[in-house]
Amino acid sequence: MIGFSGTRLGLSWVIMEERWPKFKEASRMPYMDIAEIPLGNKGRKIALFCVLATIVGGTIVFIILIAGFMHEGLVPVLSICEWVLITAGILLPFTWLGTPKDFWQASIIAVIATAIACVVIFIMILVQSDQHENSYYQNPTLWTFSLGFGAILFAFGGASVFPTIQNDMADRSQFSKSVVIAFSGLLAMYLPVTVAGYAVQGYEVGDNILLSVDVTSGVVKAAIVLQVVNLLGTYLITFNPIGQTFEGLFKVEGSKYA
């Protein structure tokens, strides 16, 4: 569903470029530009609120996840709250970068880290399957289904960032193809881990499947480090539209958008 939304957003921007040449230039707030064409200024403001709320909420979760990994899997001496502050302090200078193309390496590193971590998690789940011989399964309720579906939507989220990424592409008409490839890759990485986790651990599987295996293992610790790297890179890319939006609102000069 989110992948389909991404392809529609990409197509919308291509249509705008064809009909209004001014949109061929770089834009600080492309999502809001898309909303303004059919819905006017009110639609632009609504889109602005929704995008900011979505991204702020998502990036907060990223920081909490990083802090949780550091506390429960790597350095338990410090509390999660302390790790939240440390993580935010480390990330702050990198949020001052311009657009995603200024730190494209972050996305590559994040994908590689995620792929390796997923392989490690999948193998460790199978290796430790003998520890869950008495796993049990419960029928889902409306509440548990809603929680699970919400987590899935979050994992495959990012639509608010799509127009910003598309704006950095040399050929923006190819964005829809990149969305299909990206989400196919995510599905190939996530699906085996989720199926194996539930099949082996059943209802005992934790909220964070990486912390549901033996975190004292060196291999698992390496996977946790990779996931932290992934989340750091994802945070930078996801947060970027917020910075660009406020630069546009406050008319910050000194960039290609000025």
Automatic annotation (TrEMBL):
GO terms for cellular component: membrane. The keyword Cell wall biogenesis/degradation does not apply. It is found in: Membrane. Coiled coil: none annotated. Its main location: membrane. Pfam families: Aa_trans. The chain crosses the membrane at residues 46-67, 73-94, 106-127, 147-166, 178-199, 219-237. Residues 24-251 form the Amino acid transporter transmembrane domain. Keywords: Membrane, Transmembrane, Transmembrane helix, Transport. PANTHER family: OS05G0424000 PROTEIN-RELATED. This is Amino acid transporter transmembrane domain-containing protein.
